[in-house]
Specification:
With 217 residues, the protein is an alpha+beta fold. Helices cover 27% and strands 31% of the residues. Bound molecules: flavin mononucleotide.
Length: 217
């Protein structure tokens, strides 16, 4: 069997020429900087600027990664929503630590976060669930996320059954679906620069605030 691999792949590279990220302008509160970078990504018209790759690991240390959407970010941490019985949910219950990365490619920026994860308050999940479009609510109730199914029709039959069940009334949040909050123990900002001399500033929590260090690119 012959696999097609673009011979240009190894030679593809982008020259990064953005202005830099300096210790002085970064400030000493990474939440303020993160909020600024996220709003820059929104202003730049990036599609789903809140998408992040979320890495979890099983109890015996085997990693897995997938995209989820960041739905909240404050001093308590970064919030995303999912199915608690999914692969990521099961891994987080067994090993409540995660790492995540967001890429805003047109801005040549990446942000990495790491920290402990816990379920958000059920009331907070209820509020967010109630705010979702009805179709997404029905999908969340009906889909046994990450489980093997016999085919698409099994999912469609299940969706239709759930839709009829909730006909004429609001959809209740199922217990197996809700939010996780990832505490921010470390957060690293990466800004692409010329000649691979990128800027990397790593903020690490200390008992009173943050330590900041520059990492080599
Ligand atoms: C752009 C994008 C956004 C997504 N957002 C979410 C999300 O917020 N929550 C979620 O559970 N899955 C989301 N997914 C689907 C996940 O990537 C993944 O397929 C699913 O959560 C099952 O992962 P798991 O089997 O590792 O638990 C998203 C996928 C994409 C491509």
């Amino acid at each position: 069997m012959v696999f097609f691999v673009d011979p240009e792949l190894a030679r593809m590279r982008e020259e990064y020429a953005q202005s830099g990220l300096h210790e002085t302008t970064a400030g000493n509160d990474p939440f303020v900087l993160f909020a600024k970078w996220l709003s820059d990504a929104v202003a730049a018209g990036i599609v789903e600027p809140n998408a992040m790759a979320l890495a979890t690991a099983s109890a015996d240390g085997k990693p897995s990664v997938r995209i989820v959407l960041l739905k909240g970010f404050d001093l308590a941490g970064a919030v995303f929503y999912t199915n608690y019985d999914s692969r990521k949910g099961r891994e987080l219950e067994a090993n409540p630590h995660a790492a995540a990365v967001m890429l805003w490619h047109p801005l040549q920026r990446q942000v990495r976060i790491e920290g402990a994860v816990s379920r958000v308050d059920p009331a907070e999940s209820d509020d967010y669930f109630a705010d979702r479009p009805r179709g997404s609510q029905l999908g969340a109730v009906s889909s046994p996320q990450s489980q093997v199914v016999s085919g698409r029709s099994e999912l469609e039959v299940h969706f239709d059954r759930v839709e009829s069940h909730f006909a004429g009334r609001s959809v209740e949040r199922p217990e197996h679906w809700g939010g996780y909050r990832m505490e921010i123990h470390t957060i690293e900002f990466w800004q692409g620069r010329q000649n691979r001399m990128h800027d990397r500033l790593l903020f690490e929590r200390n008992p009173t605030g943050w330590d900041v260090e520059r990492l080599a690119p």
